[in-house]
Design a protein that fits this description.
- By secondary structure, this protein is of the alpha+beta class.
- It has 2 domains: 347 residues, Outer membrane efflux proteins (OEP) (Up-down Bundle), CATH 1.20.1600; 41 residues, no CATH class.
- The protein is built from 9 helices and 6 strands, in the order H-H-H-E-E-H-E-E-H-H-H-E-E-H-H.
- The chain has a 4-stranded antiparallel beta sheet with strand order 1-4-5-6, with no helix packed on it. Strands 2-3 form a two-stranded antiparallel sheet.
- The longest helix has 68 residues.
- It starts with a helix and ends in a 10-residue tail after the last helix.
- The N terminus is likely disordered.
């Protein structure tokens, strides 16, 4: 029995010091792959990517205004009625033609009628290619810069979402590993108690122990069965949530990386300067309002553009060197008065800038507080972990001593049960305190935006 108990506890302690220690480094190929899977399958990130693509497309549209615009237009008209131009050609020429006929004794000069020409063009076409290009337009330049800043804001928003998702995935992974560890601990404890039940049954049968010892060991076994069932349910719940974050089937297997958690007691260097994508997002929003404010001042600068029309116009779809034409020109537009609209827009942007600056200061201070709290929590959890490891070693030694004394008949079974409970509690506490260290490090990663998103693929 003693050899069996030692073997079980050695396996348990090995699990505590490796897999169940739960990723002290919070970085591994397995965990990064899980985060990458979440990035690839998460619907929220897909929506953020769509918004980023929309911003990129808007920037390309803004740049397209610098280039010439070439368009083809064609008109064809049929008309009847309307205003006319009357030409008294007959009244003017018929007397002359009559005189000429008399002088030449001929009818070579006929009588002609007065003419009436319709002003509206009939059976007339006008087809042309127009090329237009801005020469001076400051709004185009500012619009491009604003779209570029908004694209940076979309990128920052995407990074914020990714970092929050990475944090949630890592925390869910830690909780799953912790739940798995708790299941192993209670299962091993139940194995030991079941072994005690078997031995006590033999002792009671042989008259060495009374029935009270057997009842106590069976009661302890039932208690551990309930705790084991609770641990299994917690593990199932953790698995469901983790697979939900990865958008995978509920029963998908989760691999525990046994190489993680090897430096839980090591101190981390505090980053020299805090980086936070939320602050970047707010700062880029403020820059966009600044540019929009400056753009309102461009109304005082005239807009100049040039154009060139090349086409053909005529009747009956006739096309020759007489119907072909070109027109070149320059357009000038200068807004002189708009009822104070630009001043009102400028004031609105100034209020937005003030609001954004206030929001930036608030988030910056909250982030600074969260940063300090995360480091304090890490130091506290490291101290708790150091204490928990010491208590675990003492509890294991105490249990081994009590087990040996119980076998020799020098201590009561209730003392052995108490030693087992202390060992189980110490083992759980060691696992929890180590997990808390890693959870603190995950929080530090998130607060300071330390995760290299480009490395997660």
């Amino acid at each position: 029995m003693l050899a069996t108990i030692r073997k079980v506890w050695m396996l348990t302690l090995g699990y505590v010091l490796t897999a169940a220690s739960v990723q002290a480094q919070v970085e591994s190929a397995i965990l990064n792959q899980y985060v990458a899977t979440a990035f690839a399958s998460n619907e929220g990130i897909k929506q953020q990517n769509i918004q980023f693509e929309q911003g990129l497309n808007a920037l390309k549209q803004a740049k397209s205004f610098y280039y010439p615009n070439v368009s083809l237009s064609a008109d064809y008209m049929r008309a009847a009625g309307g205003r006319t131009i009357d030409l008294p050609i007959g009244d003017l020429m018929n007397p002359v033609y009559s005189t000429l006929n008399q002088l030449t004794h001929s009818n070579n000069f006929p009588t002609i009628k007065n003419e009436s020409f319709q002003l509206n063009p009939d059976n007339y076409y006008d087809a042309k290619v127009r090329t237009a290009m801005p020469l001076i337009n400051t709004e185009i330049r500012y619009n491009e810069r604003i779209k570029k800043v908004l694209l940076d804001k979309n990128q920052a928003a995407l990074n914020v979402y990714k970092r929050e998702l990475a944090k949630n995935v890592k925390e869910a992974y830690l909780h799953y590993c912790q739940a798995s560890n708790a299941e192993v601990i209670f299962a091993n404890s139940l194995t030991l108690v079941n072994e005690n039940v078997r031995v006590n049954k033999s002792l009671v049968k042989n008259g060495v122990k009374n029935n009270t010892v057997l009842l106590r060991s069976e009661s302890e076994a039932e208690k551990l069965k309930a705790q084991l069932e609770e641990a299994r349910n917690n593990k199932t719940a953790a698995r469901l949530y983790f697979n939900f974050l990865l958008n995978r089937p509920d029963e998908s297997e989760i691999i525990v990386d046994t190489t993680l958690g090897q430096n839980a007691e090591e101190d981390l260097a505090i980053p020299a300067g805090m980086n936070n994508d939320v602050l970047t997002q707010i700062a880029t929003g403020e820059k966009a309002f600044e540019l929009a404010k400056k753009m309102t001042q461009t109304t005082y600068v005239p807009k100049v553009a040039t154009f060139l029309d090349m086409g053909s116009q005529g009747n009956n779809f006739k096309f020759d060197n007489k119907t072909a034409y070109f027109i070149w020109g320059i357009n000038l537009k200068w807004d002189l008065f708009a009822g104070g609209m630009n001043n009102l827009k400028r004031k609105s942007y100034e209020l937005e800038i003030d609001n954004t600056q206030s929001q930036y200061r608030m988030v910056r201070d909250a982030n600074d507080l969260e940063h300090k709290q995360a480091w304090l929590n890490l130091k506290t959890n490291q101290a708790k972990y150091k204490s928990a490891r010491t208590q675990l070693k003492m509890a294991q030694r105490y249990y081994n001593d009590q087990l040996k004394a119980y076998k020799e008949g020098t201590v009561l079974y209730i003392e052995l049960v108490d030693a087992l409970n202390q060992l189980t509690t110490a083992e759980l506490q060691e696992s929890i305190s180590r997990a808390n260290i890693l959870l603190s490090r995950v929080q530090i990663e998130r607060v300071n935006s330390l995760i290299d998103l480009n490395s997660i693929k």
